[in-house]
């Protein structure tokens, strides 16, 4: 972690995150990540991991990066993808939508770290009991699949009993918010939506521009798309024929991560996910420029707190 400029883990984003973005994130000084399912067909994952490992290498080691594994019964390539993570000794594996002891043991067996997405304290307990190394607290306002709890409530509940690695997700697009996440009890901030509007992201140009043009008021929380509640850009819902005021109720049992399933067809190819923090994203820029903005904001926030402490002392 000595290579980090900021305590940030970039969130893995379906369709958006690929090798170019991950490498740029790592070189800029944050932890880059991508979903294994973005590598299609699945044989491409081997090439992606080889490329990333080579490009983030350093004398005596390499910059940390992460791969997201969807641990859901419909993901019929999970075993294949986990085997490749073991082959390349991926430093961090993020597990979502399910917690499996065998997956956790495969990663921790070579010294890797498993961080599991959770939206409440009950799921957090279950993940650690199943062998996860740490947790990603997905609070209200996060892009894509998200929870409803305040980050302050969720972090404090988890920190009552867990002192391991803890990451906070939820509308973090500004350096001051990264500092706030640390102050609230997180080790790292989970930043996703801001990286969609970067040159290296594989998101459609219209997706990037919609983020630039939108604000928190343009986000809708619904389970209509995948069966699991998530945050989506209202203009993309309208374009797809939905009425934001009368959204259908989704069925979690219909979630499907197999090729050609509804996850691929609707979210997030045609209907675009984004977190509530998009109001500070005002242009499409390089990943390096984005990270530098966050670094500057983070430093300024620390200095403001220092001055405030002296003033009130």
What can you tell me about this protein's structure?
- The protein is α/β, with parallel strands linked by helices and 313 residues long.
- Helix content is 37%, strand content 16%.
- It has twelve helices and 13 strands.
- It has helices spanning 19-28, 44-55, 78-87, 101-108, 121-129, 151-159, 175-184, 193-196, 205-213, 234-239, 262-265, 287-312; strands at residues 8-10, 32-35, 57-58, 61-62, 65-70, 92-96, 113-118, 134-138, 144-145, 166-169, 188-191, 219-222, 230-233.
- The strands form three sheets. It has an eight-stranded parallel β-sheet with strand order 1-11-10-8-7-6-5-2.
- It is globular.
- The two termini are 34 Å apart.
- Residues 259-265 have low confidence and may be disordered.
Outline:
The chain is of the alpha/beta class and 313 residues long. The chain has helices at 19-28, 44-55, 78-87, 101-108, 121-129, 151-159, 175-184, 193-196, 205-213, 234-239, 262-265, 287-312; strands at residues 8-10, 32-35, 57-58, 61-62, 65-70, 92-96, 113-118, 134-138, 144-145, 166-169, 188-191, 219-222, 230-233.
